[in-house]
User: Which sequence fits this backbone?
């Protein structure tokens, strides 16, 4: 049962592979607390003590790393569906 066409499923496969690679890479960088991503953290405008700021930074990095992992898992599901559709379309094309 084909839900989408040959080219659409191929495009979904390529975008899924790129999304998996990018989100896994970003997740690793968030996990090791890369300073390049400090602007992407959900931080407050003002902190009373430096310890509160450091705690929020560590918590933000871990939360963003986890979110990237969840996004990569969703791309894996999309890759599976797109690959299934690609082979379903290929099978119906060559049966003639």
Assistant:
């Amino acid at each position: 049962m084909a839900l989408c066409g040959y080219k659409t499923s191929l495009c979904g496969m390529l975008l899924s592979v790129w999304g998996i690679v990018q989100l896994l890479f970003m997740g690793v960088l968030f996990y090791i607390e890369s300073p390049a991503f400090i602007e992407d953290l959900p931080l407050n405008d003002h902190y009373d003590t430096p310890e509160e700021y450091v705690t929020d930074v560590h918590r933000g990095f871990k939360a963003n790393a986890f979110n990237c992992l969840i996004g990569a898992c969703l791309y894996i599901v999309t890759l599976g569906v797109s690959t299934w559709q690609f082979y379903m379309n290929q099978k119906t094309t060559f049966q003639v």
Observations:
- The chain has two helices and no strands.
- The CA atoms of residues 9 and 86 lie 5 Å apart.
- The two ends are 16 Å apart (CA to CA).
- The mean pLDDT is 92.
